[in-house]
Write a structure and sequence with these properties.
With about 180 residues, the protein is an alpha+beta fold. The chain is built from 5 helices and 6 strands. It is flat.
Length: about 180
């Protein structure tokens, strides 16, 4: 069952690498992608499953910030407000993510997903589940453990998410998931 989790995220990479193609996925990944697309639509893009490249850009900015610390004299090295090229790339990426042509389509009867993105937008758009990914891992692991009658303890992640399995004063299991 743990292989199913790894398979789902290998399949997510496959979807990223093969846009505009119908791809069959597991029930769990299908549900997760539908939930993520629904969140994108209902929040008018404030949460977007397509923000993977944007997250990478910001990650690079914060990594640069980490190297130079809080020294405000170095702010021009990492702040897009002082680097017009970086700001332009971020703005362009946001615009590509929010295009109506960037979306997911679903075939309920066959559990197929299609990641629609224009050819010229591919380098700016990447599927990324964000915190939904952590929730998915924890929920899936919880279901697997409960199916195996391991029903006492909790699961936690390094980003602060927790799921309880149940409480038994004599025998609690603790599982920590660390994402790197």
């Amino acid at each position: 069952n743990c292989l199913v989790i790894a398979f789902d995220f290998a399949k997510l990479k496959y979807i990223n690498d093969n846009p505009n193609t119908w791809i069959n996925v597991t029930d769990s990944l299908y549900s997760l992608l539908k939930e993520a697309e629904s969140l994108r639509i209902n929040t008018e893009g404030k949460y977007s499953i397509f923000s993977g490249k944007l997250n990478e850009l910001w990650g690079d900015i914060f990594a640069t910030y980490g190297v130079y610390g809080n020294d405000s004299s170095n702010v021009t090295l990492f702040d897009p407000e002082y680097d017009s090229n970086k700001k332009e790339l971020i703005d362009l990426t946001v615009n590509k993510i929010n295009k109506e042509t960037t979306n997911l389509e679903f075939k309920d009867e066959t559990k197929e997903v299609k990641f629609n993105v224009l050819e010229e937008d591919k380098e700016y758009v990447k599927l990324d589940l964000g915190l939904l990914e952590t929730s998915f891992y924890i929920d899936t692991l919880k279901k697997l453990l409960l199916e195996e009658k391991l029903n006492s303890g909790y699961i936690s992640s390094n980003d602060g998410m927790i799921a309880t399995l149940g409480i038994n004063k004599n025998n609690n299991m603790i599982i920590n998931i660390i994402f790197i």
